[in-house]
Amino acid sequence: MENTCCASPNQVMLLCCSGGSNVGQISNQASVELTQEAVGKMYCLAGIGAKLSGFVASAQDSPIVVVIDGCEIGCSKKVMENAGIPLKNYIVVTELGISKNHDFNLKREDVQKVKDEVRKILQGQVTSVSDELPKTVGCCC
Predict the structure, then answer these.
(1) Is 10 in a helix, a strand, or coil?
(2) Among 71, 76, 99, 116, which residue carries the largest CB count within 10 Å?
(3) Per-residue pLDDT of the chain (141 residues; tens, 9 = 90+)
């Protein structure tokens, strides 16, 4: 088995925090839903953090990468920096006015706020989501 995430050249790569707080889980849930909606495809940030060559190469080669951190600690940002991958599209959930806590009953409106921010960032970068992005979710972990 290859150490690869099978990135497509026409795909939006979504990398998110999945940390132990509401904002980490909001980041994760927004990424899951955006993948289900074919806005992008969620990839394995841990594989990049572990410096698995295929995962790092996929992130380096992906034309559009969106990184979503839960809070200002910026674990996802640090993973990308440590792997030598520049951040171009970066969101911090707490900077959207969502407070960090340990209530895992996620608010629908908070998840939607993150999804809307991703879509806003992608405007102009992807001409037509349905034309540019594959509808299937494939071989990533």
Answers:
(1) coil
(2) 76
(3) 344 445 444 589 999 999 999 999 999 999 999 999 999 999 999 999 999 999 999 999 999 999 999 999 999 999 999 999 999 999 999 999 999 999 999 999 999 999 999 999 999 776 444 334 333 333 445
**Whole-Å CA distances, 17 to 4, 109, 129:** 20, 18, 24
Question: Concatenated DSSP letters for 34-90?
Answer: HHHTTS-EE--HHHHHTT-HHHHHHHHH-SEEEEEESSTT-HHHHHHHHTT---SEE
Domain annotation covers residue 17: yes
* pTM (predicted TM-score): 0.83
If residue 117 lies in a helix (H) or strand (E), which one and from where to where?
helix 108-122
User: Which structural domain, as residue segments, surrounds residue 31?
Assistant: 12-121
**How many other C-beta atoms can be found within 10 angstroms of the C-beta atom of residue 3?**
14
Domain count for the chain: 1
Residue 77 lies in a domain: yes
Tokens representing 32 are: 């899951």
